[in-house]
């Protein structure tokens, strides 16, 4: 009986079995997301991105911003076109790879523990906060960079251990590990520019774990120096691209909190808001911590406001907390180097998107890699100050997290429910209402779509929102309000092809065929590469009685799009 229990314990402690458990847990939490639809930035980065439809083009762009991530999207397109299944499956496999990398890293930190690495890995793998980096297809950029980042760090550790045991840099095994680490680190940078922080994380891991927080020698720093080549490359890449947040100054809008507690939109040069963004992030880094330990009411688009001024009380408290954390790291560097590493890891890996580079203020996927630091702090504290705690006590918590992850992923499967919740929790934010409008229109629910378009337009009366409003009115047959709304859009952007085309269709339905034809021709002139606009032009020509011109136009459309229903309909009418 005792030997049987011993065998069971031995089996449970088997690293391969533990990795298998992690992989199966991820599959259980994520496999039902394979048919989840496209969201938000998926459309401009993947769905409407012509570049990813050519493998050769994606390979040529490999060394451009996030080129490796785009190459993987291109491979998915080659496999399944715009069907989301292969994209989601790839994301899940990358998440499994990143989780296995976390397991290997935690095994290095707690090399004598049988349960801490697998428990920590499960916290990383099945926590609901990770759903945005996994189920949201475009955020493969985040999970892929994290996977390569972690693998690079692991190879570095093995390289340094090999160098210490062999006593020479020219050792073949050492060269293999060190070279692989450099290549993986550089590849991480080709997925997302956050990999610029890799050498700093290597320094922290080397100091706190490999050197046990003792006096750091210059030789150790020189050994890490080549990894800064990735940082230099990424900085140069951003500057040379001319689109970098390092130097962009286009007009942006942000939410600001008013004295009454409500939110209002403020427009301005992004360079003006850099320090407002930074002081807001002093608050956000702690909101991320709260969200990790209390993952309730998760949403995609928080629309979080910037602080009104730089002497905001919450910002000062947040900054004080950061300073206290840095001081704690210094104090614990020898006595509790693992906890010190966890604190350092969290603030380091989140620093690039929580600094002076103005982005959207708060997104959950930014916590994907930094969450490992929170896990290390939590498990380090537990192991050091509660050494007799039994690993079985973590099981209920892991089950709860898995259930929350499954529920969150179920919501990703239903975009109307997904955006409805987002809109309800952020009533000041126009974007969830706009996205909800799009999905409702896709379902043919034009009345509810019109209501969402009205809310979005009231929150932000932009040309784009008046166009969505006009489209909803048009679908409902309300031609006069549709005409008035699109005229507002055309005043702001008189040559926007979609606005011109919708206006042409509305005028045609109102019986003004001459003016309808004029605007349909303007739409084609504005975007001569869009075949569907030619189909609408042919339709306008037919309604205006110009049948010969309509036939020529529709034959041109059929040449490029043989299944175009509008062109086929006009040609069939002509034959009759």
The major beta sheet can be summarized as: 2 strands, antiparallel
On the 0 to 100 scale, the average pLDDT is: 89
Write down the Rg.
28 Å
Q: Going across the major beta sheet, what is the strand order?
A: 1-2
Q: Please give the alpha-carbon distance between the first and last residues.
A: 89 Å
SSE topology string: HHHHHHHHHHHHHEEHHHHHHHHHHHHHHH
Based on DSSP secondary structure assignment, what is the total number of beta strands?
2
Q: Regions with pLDDT < 50 over 5+ consecutive residues?
A: 247-251
- The SS-based structural class is mainly alpha
Portion of residues within helices: 55-70%
Instruction: Estimate the strand proportion.
Output: under 5%
What number of domains?
2
Silhouette: elongated
Determine the number of helices (DSSP H or I, runs of at least 4 residues).
Answer: 28
Oligomer: single chain
How would you explain this protein's 3D organization?
The chain is built from 28 helices and two strands. A hairpin with a 5-residue loop joins β1 (251-257) and β2 (263-269). It has a two-stranded antiparallel sheet with strand order 1-2. It is mainly α. The termini are far apart. The longest helix is centred in the N-terminal third of the chain and has 27 residues, at 140-166. The protein folds into two domains: 2-412, no CATH class; 415-575, Alpha Horseshoe (Serine Threonine Protein Phosphatase 5, Tetratricopeptide repeat). Mean pLDDT is 89; it is low at 247-251.
